[in-house]
Amino acid sequence: MEALDTLILSRIQFAANISFHILFPTITIALGWVLFFFRVRFAQTADAKWMDAYRFWVKIFALSFAMGVVSGITMSFQFGTNWPGFMETVGNIAGPLLAYEVLTAFFLEAVFIGIMLFGFSRVPGWLHMLATFLVAFGTTVSAFWIIVLNSWMHTPQGFEMIDGVAFATDWWAIIFNPSMPYRFAHMWIASGLTVSFLIAGVSAFRWLLGDRSRDVRIALKTGVTLGALLIPVQIFLGDMHGLNTLEYQPQKVAAMEGIWETGPNQPLLLFAIPDEEARTNHFEIGIPSVASLILTHHFDGVVQGLNDFVAEDGTVMHPPVAMVFWSFRTMVGTGMAMLLLSWTAVFLMWKRRRMHADPSRRHWLAVEGLPKPVLWALVPMAFSGWVATLAGWYTTEIGRQPWLVQGVMTTEMAVADVPAPMVAGTLVGYLIAYGVLLFAYISVVVYLARKAARGDDGRANDMSHSGKAQVEILTPAE
């Protein structure tokens, strides 16, 4: 029983660590590119609003980057303390992939982030812009290598097992394993949505505090427009990713959809309470045949059920159903809320622009078109990307159980033989620390927004670096 307790506690501890860590790379991956966009627009127009937006959001980028680095180091220790069997079995593949991430991405970010944060008044403009690009590129490359390893654990290719140890035979097959392109694209767009709603939510908060500065206007427009553009892309990629998962991990899809028996005309369940003991669902509310349509593109398509993944001796080889089922619906529900809110905001801004057309205005969206209820709705949605990302991550990772590396090793094979009370003690410590840090992070973001709304954040105090005169912020005409 102690071994079982150690396994469960170690899984909870790793889940807590990775849940906290993933929050911050999810921001930095896309925020770096938004900052690069702001920096390029400033270089093109010499309009101070772009640099004001850059200078505000680069602070949040720096904060997020620091939190991600520290939590990532803590998380990596667990491979040795809690999961030694993982590296003992697949370390010949996981080790190099993690090393590639450090050598190609982390060093790149570490070298240039200082210029990005503090070099605006100290280096030529082209160098500051280049540093911003390289940091953004570094965050993307870092995510690429991590997703490569994670995808390989789901759809392992390009290796052979010798005496219980994995050895690489084809690095191209390992890197470009069957689920990697879908998983990377899905994660990259998820980061874009996280950042778009963070920018929109914080900017709406500043607007409600009375900040009508032009950098708030342009940030709010950027956030809602980017969100409105990305959410349909994410829905399309999610469908492609789901079809790939159906091919390689059908038991995960069955858990996501709450399907127990293999058959055609599977309903899309909007609500249900999965019962693993009775191997059925209670209180089902569904749309007939739609799950078959989505997964097979035919109403009468056959979808494999969970009961196909129970061995003759009663061993269950599918994931915990209720957790995967509800995590998936949380992710989809949050995505639908993002779609509704972002499209509503863009439509209202466009409508306001049409009602008050002015040829002197270059922007096709008018922030004044957003009523207070929409602005207030954007504020709590500032961190909705975190909710969707965590729900999607839980769907993916819990949905892989009982496998740690699909078809190669189970989670139980990798856990360390340590006393359960020791794991419980460190778990409590982690949870307390992460709770305090998360509260501090959100408090700092709110503080920066309030400070900017008061106008004491030093906006438009720097000279441009292309030899142009200082740009002054004027009362906006838009």
Brief summary:
With 478 residues, the chain is mainly alpha-helical.
Question: What is the helical fraction, as a range of percent?
Answer: 55-70%
By oligomeric state, this entry counts as single chain
Distance between the termini: 67 Å
Q: Largest beta sheet, briefly?
A: 2 strands, antiparallel
How many beta-strand runs? Answer: 6
Notes on the structure:
β1 and β2 (165-168) form a beta hairpin. The strands form 3 sheets. A two-stranded antiparallel sheet has the order 1-2. Strands 3-4 form a two-stranded antiparallel sheet. A two-stranded antiparallel sheet has the order 5-6. The chain has helices at 2-45, 48-81, 84-118, 125-154, 171-175, 180-208, 214-248, 250-257, 290-296, 321-355, 372-378, 384-398, 411-414, 420-454, and strands at residues 159-162, 165-168, 268-275, 280-287, 403-405, 409-410. The relative contact order is 0.14. It is mainly α and 478 residues long.
Jot down its keywords.
478 residues; mainly alpha; two-stranded antiparallel ribbon; two-stranded antiparallel sheet; 14 helices; 6 strands; 6% strand; globular; disordered C terminus
